[in-house]
Amino acid sequence: MKRAGFTTVWLPVALLLPQLMIIAIFFYWPAAWAVQSSFYLQDPFGFGSTFVGVENYTDLMTNIEYAKVARFTLIYTALVTFFSLALALLLAVKADAVIKGAKSYRTLLMWVYAIAPPVAGFLGLMFFDQRNGPLTEMFQFFGWDFRLGADYNSTATAMVIVAVWKQIPVNFIFFLSGLQSIPKSVREAALIDNRSASGRFWDVTFPLLAPTAFFLLIINITYALFDTFGIIDTLVRSEPGNNPVTLVYKVFVDGFRGNDLGGSSAQSVILMILVLALTVFQFRLIERRIHYT
Amino acid sequence: MTFWKIAAMNAAVAISATAAFAETEITLWHAMGGQLGETVNQIAEDFNASQDDYQITPVFKGSYEETLTAGIAAFRAGEQPNIMQVFDAGAATVIGAKGATIPVQDLLTDNGVDFDINDYISGVRYFYADSDGKMIGMPFNSSSPIMYFNVDALEKAGVSAPKTWEEFQTVTAPALKDAGYIALSQSHLPWIFTENFHSRHNLPFATNNNGYDGAEDTKILVNNDAIKAHFTALTEWKENGLFEWYGTGWGDNQQPFEDGDVAIWLGSSGSFGGLMSKDLGFEFSATVLPYWEGVTSEPKQTFIGGASLFAMSGHDAEENEAAAEFFKYLTSPEVQYFWHQETGYVPITEAAYELAKEDGHYDRFPAAEVGIQQLSLPGGDNTKGYRMGFYVQIRDVMNREYGRILSGETSVEDAFSNIENEANDLLARFAKTQG
């Protein structure tokens, strides 16, 4: 096979340049700046600055509160990822089986996708309002003194519910198209082999959905880690208090509210490393084992 | 054809207008939203109309925190506004950055505006001053936490507004409970029950003269018996249904008072205008904050809350002159009285206070005077203010630990030792940023 190529080096470089510059200016430069300032403690206005080595990092590692925030982030990410994937899969499988009115049913399920995170947060505020929120009343009916903003577990529950609700449509769309791309012949063959619908699902459909599911797993983890910021900020009304927050929210609180540039830079570097690890995990460990058709 | 003629004429007029007036234009970045922002705009418009040499443009930049962050980012980019509003908790950051601002006292005297710190009411004089008593930031929207009460509820319970917390505990609160009310709520634990708790009882809040003598080695003194006893009392009141806490959000704690469920609410003197404009369905009034007789027999004045205006450095002399003129206009008794009436923030000068009294403002609205009365109470060694770096985070730590106390997650003892340790770590970190 003949490989098409450029005769000079400069043309491809020139063609790539705009893209490279965007990456350099908007990603590498700020990232490098964050790494650099994580080794300093500096006056917000840029007057004084002290080189402190890795002190910003050691301070974080020995800080009990930071560990608590990290632990909450882990649990929160796991819950949001699990529930938004599981519920979306359930809805997709059911929607796939619907024949009458399938389109309007699917459209309704995708609707929430268009809602911005802070707006989702506001809806959450109304549903979980301390005084007359319908969901607050429901929880109280079941004997849980649910109080958004005043009680740690209440706020955590509200955060998870709103974040899951917001993410289901995205997962639903992907799962549904994944299901629809499974060849009819395979399904029919499976139908002959196995009479149990759930058996067919776990033995045939689910493995064929694995590439979609894995892709969504990564997307959902990053969503829970980073994109739920707007939901959290709205639900805690920008006053974290004793409410749970995630690592990203803490970067914001310390950096933008508190003007501790060194400390919050160190936190963002830690998050960068986390994302890097996640990416390596995605490409190295699992992609090999998952068969994309 | 006519269209282009008109356009050309307009352009010509616009150009000649700029040339003819040559006004010095300055900007003011502030955090006053809603009705407060409209009042700021009104003051700016009136200033612009009052003379032909200067033109000020107020820009709303969001919350206090957002305004400060925006101002810092702009300063680092060399695009800072002429005047920036900075709130109480951010004062150490902006005052610590020597060279970021021109001390307002210097700005005024250099531009030929008379300045005497004694013209200002005693409670606001030194809060934004340096350790030598030089005023760095111009107190603008100054408020103080005061005690609002539902007059009908207190009458029904047959009690009067408590003067001391002992009275609240033994007389007022139980009577209110019997009358079917939750006796007390408050909207800002760090501000009302921490900072002003220390001021009201004349307790030192930090070493180094409450932090005024420099960031180096400043330690917070919040872990003391008086305040721990106060929070222990709060948890007991909460258990007995005498006090309720609805989370860290300001409005969540104010709403039950407005709904008539809570009889006494501690809020800002600046909340007065908002409460007046609502149809509450009951009569409300206000008085000074109670104190613990067991801690002090001579309660003192409180700190101011709210924010002040800082003149940013890096502008030319003409613009600084314009900023000085605006400050002069802003502190005139008439403008201060207008601001006081519209918003409920206290007038910052004695002259404006006198004007409000003469005009009968307090005969019409007695509760409007409470903030300034409280700020004019006798002062003590520890009442002029506090100056601590990274204070926004220290407040966040307090809010977190107080929330844990009140939701039963931690003990008063552990919470205060946590606050002390974390705050001191933050203060030590801040001291390093100043190096």
Automatic annotation (TrEMBL), chain A:
Transmembrane segments: 9-29, 69-93, 105-128, 156-179, 200-226, 266-286
Topology of the protein relative to the lipid bilayer: Multi-pass membrane protein
Gene3D superfamilies (UniProt xref): MetI-like
GO biological process: transmembrane transport
SUPFAM superfamilies assigned: MetI-like (SSF161098)
Domain ABC transmembrane type-1: 74-282
Cellular component terms per the entry's GO annotation: plasma membrane
Primary site of residence: membrane
Subcellular localization: Cell inner membrane; Cell membrane
Similarity annotation: Belongs to the binding-protein-dependent transport system permease family.
Annotated function: Part of the ABC transporter complex UgpBAEC involved in sn-glycerol-3-phosphate (G3P) import. Probably responsible for the translocation of the substrate across the membrane.
Subunit structure comment from the entry: The complex is composed of two ATP-binding proteins (UgpC), two transmembrane proteins (UgpA and UgpE) and a solute-binding protein (UgpB).
PANTHER family, alphabetized: BLL4140 PROTEIN, SN-GLYCEROL-3-PHOSPHATE TRANSPORT SYSTEM PERMEASE PROTEIN UGPA
Protein name: sn-glycerol-3-phosphate transport system permease protein UgpA
Organism whose genome encodes this protein: Tritonibacter scottomollicae (Epibacterium scottomollicae)
From TrEMBL, chain B:
Pfam families xref list: SBP_bac_8
Swiss-Prot/TrEMBL keywords: Signal, Transport
Leader peptide range in chain numbering: 1-22
Subcellular location: Periplasm
InterPro entries xrefs: Bact_solute-bd_prot1, SBP
Subunit structure: The complex is composed of two ATP-binding proteins (UgpC), two transmembrane proteins (UgpA and UgpE) and a solute-binding protein (UgpB).
Protein name: sn-glycerol-3-phosphate-binding periplasmic protein UgpB
